[in-house]
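queue> pop job 88
queue> type: inverse folding (structure -> sequence)
queue> payload:
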């Protein structure tokens, strides 16, 4: 098992990324997990109750210890207000990540800031051979974030993923990869 050596807290200029905690459940539920507009492009269903969020946090706590999934809350550094979260999935050195924000905080550069801070940390991890993600081809905001953070489009895949919050219809997705150090 390849374990990542990720810090439990990462400070950015305007943001603070912190390991997910049980105490975060209500904030997560009301900030983004229960909002259809926020979860539209997620691979998981919009949370219907706080119990859905608590179940996810229970999984996230277990997965961090196992080294398979590292989930962070994203908070404003000056106020501590929760605005989103970010997750890193570790499949034996192949990294996939994703993020979600409250719609109230879209278009302010927060996703770019969090990703630009986290990616060098991931690139320095031992035994990592790939860092990538995929997005619905219609998710233009996330495509821009990934491009700003140095990701390159690797492939476009027709009818590749069903998103539960979009009538579960197969969608075209774009696979992005971040070049590792020395592999430009």
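queue> result:
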């Amino acid at each position: 098992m390849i374990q990542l050596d990720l810090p439990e807290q990462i400070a950015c200029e305007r943001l603070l990324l912190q390991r997910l905690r049980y105490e975060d459940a209500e904030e997560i539920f009301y900030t983004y997990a229960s909002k259809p507009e926020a979860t539209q492009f997620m691979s998981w269903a919009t949370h219907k109750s706080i119990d859905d969020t608590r179940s996810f946090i229970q999984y996230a706590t277990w997965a961090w210890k196992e080294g398979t999934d590292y989930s962070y809350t994203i908070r404003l550094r000056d106020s501590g207000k929760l605005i989103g979260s970010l997750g890193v999935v570790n499949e034996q050195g192949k990294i996939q990540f994703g993020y979600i924000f409250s719609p109230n905080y879209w278009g302010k550069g927060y996703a770019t800031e969090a990703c630009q801070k986290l990616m060098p940390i991931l690139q320095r991890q031992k035994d990592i051979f790939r860092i990538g993600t995929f997005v619905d081809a219609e998710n233009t905001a996330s495509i821009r974030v990934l491009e700003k953070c140095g990701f390159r489009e690797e492939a476009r895949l027709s009818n590749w993923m069903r998103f539960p919050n979009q009538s579960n219809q197969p969608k075209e997705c774009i696979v992005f990869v971040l070049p590792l150090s020395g592999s430009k």
